[in-house]
Amino acid sequence: MYLKQCCDVLEQKGLKVAFIESASSGHLSAQFSIYKNSGAEILLGGLVSYDPSIKIKILGINPQLIEKYTAESAEVTTEMAIKGKKLFDQADFIVSCTGLLKHGGSESEQKPVGTFYICIYYAADIYNFQYFIEGTPQEKLQQLTELVAKELLNLMS
Predict the structure, then answer these.
(1) Which of 151, 86, 90, 85 minimizes the C-alpha distance to 121?
(2) What gap in Å lies between CA 54 and CA 103, rounded to an integer?
(3) How far is Cα 18 from Cα 138, in angstroms, rounded to an integer?
């Protein structure tokens, strides 16, 4: 299980993470906070920016970026991570997440439900990931959490 291993490594290295979440609706923050000692030691905080208005008003995302690429896109996810670093400047890692957990977003043939975008801001570098995850919404969130943990572990090694 990557999540437990990731939390342990973050704690051992004294690193902090913050999440800027949309599709995952706070699930990542919750999962990274539940391990013994890990919550207080590794999780700095998070922001759920599910609605585009929060991305615009709180994070300062340019509305034209959302209009051009949609709220669930690599471009917006990257901007969320960059803006998130300003909110959580003490975090070593900023993880932003957008995507299509269920029907109702910007889904299309090219971007079906189950498409997720992750951006990790670490050491002044940007790392982008795109995944397609199948299953129920809960199964997708569990898989997404493991994928984020795996990518964080890769960056720390």
Answers:
(1) 85
(2) 20
(3) 21
Reduced to 3 states (helix: H, G, I; strand: E, B; else coil), residue 136 is coil
CA 9 from centroid of its chain's CA atoms: 18
Helix (H) / strand (E) element for 119: namely strand 115-122
- Residue 13 CB partners (closer than 8 Å, separation 6+): 156
Quote the pLDDT of residue 34: 87
Give pLDDT, residue 151: 98
- pTM recorded for the entire structure: 0.94
Got the DSSP string for 44-104? EEEEE--SHHHHHHTT---HHHHHHH-SSSHHHHHHHHHHHHHHTTT-SEEEEEEE-SSTT
Phi, psi for residue 93 in degrees, rounded to 5:
-120, 130
pLDDT of residue 31: 94
Successive 10-residue mean pLDDT values, the chain, 157 residues: 93 96 93 77 92 94 96 96 96 96 84 95 97 96 97 97
Quickly tell me which residue has 């709180």 as its tokens. Answer: 58
The enclosing H or E element of 41 equals helix 38-42
DSSP at 134: -
Which H/E stretch holds residue 19? Answer: strand 17-21
